[in-house]
Design a protein that fits this description.
- The protein is α/β, with parallel strands linked by helices and 243 residues long.
- It has two domains: 124 residues, 3-Layer(aba) Sandwich (Rossmann fold), CATH 3.40.50; 94 residues, Winged helix-like DNA-binding domain superfamily/Winged helix DNA-binding domain (Arc Repressor Mutant, subunit A), CATH 1.10.10.10.
- It is 43% helix and 19% strand.
- Strand 10 and strand 11 form a beta hairpin.
- Helix 6 crosses helix 7 and helix 6 packs across helix 8.
Length: 243
């Protein structure tokens, strides 16, 4: 049974949801949005359901924190009674997987959640690991290794590297990379450059380098090792010594 984590400050909402959908989903609930990462560390979930209006931290703040963590691959649905258009727009702008209104029929709510879970399951089945040379990336845990040594990348650094590995040996535009790494359309160039610099510093001995020629995108290139050659005078000197 698919595992669902539902965060809502209303005990009534949580109990009603469990009563209606516990036959379809394995449901874990919490009234505390501050507790979300403790729960995510405890077990693997197929989807997160977030209430929008919560006093300690609203659903969009929690969504942003999840999207910047190693759990960013888990689909997040905003679940609310607030049907104002501005809330819907904010959910879409925040890259939520969907927004569902409590006023919808139970069957539609169930199917919408199942659809997102199935997409998540298929995506994870297709690609769980990426490899390139001595580099190995675990897409589920957002960890990168070189010769089994953990490179300790941040989630953003991992997503940048994963995008470059997937596109190797082709370049990727800065716009596409920003979309994949930040789930946003607009990120300051200074912020992008800082993350690229930090990533380069963590890959000092790889056989690949990250290059970003101005105006041409970002590319992962194989390091060209210079072949050491013996100076001509020394070469002929050695020959004469052997004769």
């Amino acid at each position: 049974m698919n595992k669902l984590l539902y965060i809502d400050d209303s005990e009534t909402n949580l109990e009603m949801f469990k009563e209606n959908f516990s036959g379809t989903f394995n449901i874990t609930t919490s009234t505390c949005p501050m507790n979300v990462f403790n729960l995510l560390e405890g077990q693997r979930y197929d989807l997160i359901l977030l209430d929008v209006h919560m006093p300690e931290r609203n659903g969009f703040q929690v969504l942003k924190e999840i999207s910047e963590s190693r759990f960013s691959n888990i689909p997040v649905i905003m679940f609310t009674s607030d049907e104002l258009q501005v809330i819907r727009y904010q959910a879409l702008a925040s890259q939520a997987s969907d927004i569902i209104y409590r006023s919808l029929p139970d069957k539609e709510i169930e199917l919408r959640i199942l659809n997102k879970m199935n997409l998540f399951s298929k995506r994870n089945t297709v690609v769980k690991h990426l490899t390139l040379g001595s580099l190995s990336l675990n897409v589920e845990t957002l960890e990168a290794f070189q010769h089994e040594n953990n490179l300790n990348l941040t989630p953003i650094e991992f997503k940048i590297l994963a995008s470059l590995v997937k596109n190797y040996p082709e370049k990727i535009t800065r716009e596409i990379m920003v979309k994949k790494a930040w789930n946003q359309d607009n990120v300051l160039d200074r912020t992008v450059n800082t993350h690229l610099t930090n990533l380069r510093n963590k890959l000092p001995k790889l056989e690949f380098t990250i290059e970003s020629p101005r105006g041409t995108g970002i590319i992962l290139k194989k390091t060209v090792r210079e072949r050491k050659t013996m100076p001509a005078n020394r070469f002929f000197s050695n020959i004469f010594q052997e004769l």
